[in-house]
Structures are given as C-alpha cells and as structure tokens.
C-alpha cells in the first residue's frame, strides 16, 4: 500500500510537471516565480555590474533592471553602443534613475589584467557593487571533428576563464562586505549536449562545474550564485559566433520564423531569477525546456537512437 501511494504521488507529480512545462517558456519554478514571486522592483537601489551590455541578452537584462530602479555599470568593448543602451535605460527607468546612476565602462573582458581596475572604478563611483552579471561571450557553429584546437582555446578564454577571473575580482569585494550576488549567463547547452557547437557546449558545461562549486562554498556566506540558462534567443549572436577556424566569424543572421525567445523576455526572466536568488534558471520557447527536463531527469528517453524516434530534430544548427 505504501509503495502504491508513493507511485501514485510520483506519477501525479510527473504529470503536473509535464503539463506545466508546456504552459511556461521557462522551467516550472521560474514560471511560478514570474507570476507569484518577488518582483525585480525589490532590487531598487542595488548596483549591478553587467558585462556584454552593449547588445543582446546583456542589453535587455540592463533594461529589465533599469525598469526596477537598479543602478547599473554597463561594460562592453563598444563605447558608442554602451552610450545608446544607457540612454535607453534612462528612458525605461521613467525617473527611477538619474544620469549618474548608470556608469559606462568600455572594457574588453579578454584583457584580464584590467578586470580589477574596472571593478574598482565601479566601486569608487557607487560605493559598492551588489550584483555581478557575467554575460559577455560568443557562441559557435561548427562541426566537431573539423574544429581547430585554437578555437576551443579561444572559446574557453572568453566564455570561461574571463568569467572566472572577473568573478574572483568581485568576490574580494563581496567577501569584504559579507554579501553579494554572482549571476552568470550559461545556456541550455550547458545542461545537455548541443550539436554543431562542441566548443561552446563544453565551455558552458565548464561554467556549471565552476559555479555550482562556488555556490556550495558560499552557502553560509550570504553570497548567492545564479546560473542563467537561455535557449535560442533573438539576438545578433550568430554574426559573432565562432566557426571551426580561428579568427573566423560566422556572420549569420536570425530570421523572424526561427523558434526563439525575444531578448526582452529573456532579460525580464533574468531579472526575476536574480531577485528571487534562483540557483539555476532555464528559459526558452517550447519544446527546448521540455527537452532539457527529459534529458536531465529521464535520460533513458533521450538515449533512444534517432532511428527509433518519430519526432523531428529540434536541436539542429538552424534552431541554436
């Protein structure tokens, strides 16, 4: 009888999750937090340091935080684009922020010797930094077996080692203050293997290893770690994506018919995840989050050979 009740409970729980994942464009917890959790406005007055803020997910995360009255440090290589984003943030803030509440710092995250100076600049300006959002990075489109090893090294330098180094700089400040929040933009490709993106997938898996470890170390230190895992998003990332050859950019574009989440929606969900101190947030249009649930929690189904499946391939290069 006992095991029957347990079995019914597990079945009911699984059915609930199956239905819920079709209703949300994110994982189930995030779906409920978006509707019933803390509002990003709870972050009003906090200071967020964002890398890669000149476009895409970083840009729209900045907009979502500006709407909540969060003071911002916008960093990226292109100063002109950062100034544009700053202007838009002030408009979105609707009076919650003033000119001096948004600091622009032109910064190349690959210049790791400059990380400490840039972070100290932000501290001098605001007196403190509360949240670090590691967003800068590049994607990839390439066949695994023809990718030059130098591409893997460049990918890890940008998407992993630069992130780790800046985070360690921020942790000096957070440890001294006794509080802080580190958010890092990973990908659903950090949870499951994504074809035609071998180096990118490997780098994102590395991010999860590093930051899951950091989260455990800081559990009792009032320093929180959030890993943000978007699926396909409408941004200009394909233009800058690595290929299989060093120094080459894909110069690809997205099309309106692609199955992708808007950057605006992704930025909003990032803000929701941060204010609610979520450990890990998955987001993306159907069926990407469902696929991730199945691959992570029911791997026996994801291991069925494609020749025995009836569904179309939804994780090919045109969907990533």
Q: Can you tell me about this structure?
A:
The protein has 320 residues and is α/β, with parallel strands linked by helices. Helix content is 47%, strand content 13%. It has helices at residues 2-23, 28-36, 56-67, 79-93, 115-126, 149-177, 198-217, 237-240, 263-275, 288-297, 299-302, and strands spanning 47-50, 71-76, 102-106, 131-134, 180-185, 223-230, 233-234, 261-262, 280-283. A seven-stranded parallel sheet has the order 3-2-1-4-5-6-9, sandwiched between helices. Strands 7-8 form a two-stranded parallel ribbon. α3 packs parallel to α4, α3 (56-67) packs across α9 and α6 (149-177) runs parallel beside α7 (198-217). The longest helix is centred in the middle third of the chain and has 29 residues, at 149-177. It is globular and about 65 Å long. Residues 316-320 have low confidence and may be disordered.
Task: Describe the secondary-structure layout.
Layout: H1 2-23, H2 28-36, E1 47-50, H3 56-67, E2 71-76, H4 79-93, E3 102-106, H5 115-126, E4 131-134, H6 149-177, E5 180-185, H7 198-217, E6 223-230, E7 233-234, H8 237-240, E8 261-262, H9 263-275, E9 280-283, H10 288-297, H11 299-302
Parallel strand pairs: 1-2, 1-4, 2-3, 4-5, 5-6, 6-9, 7-8
> How far do the termini sit from each other?
47 Å
The chain-level mean pLDDT equals: 92
Across the major sheet, the strand order is 3-2-1-4-5-6-9
Structural class: alpha/beta
Shape: globular
Largest sheet: 7 strands, parallel
Helix content: 40-55%
User: Any low-confidence stretches, pLDDT <50, length ≥5?
Assistant: 316-320
Number of strand segments = 9
| Rg on CA atoms, Å | 20 Å
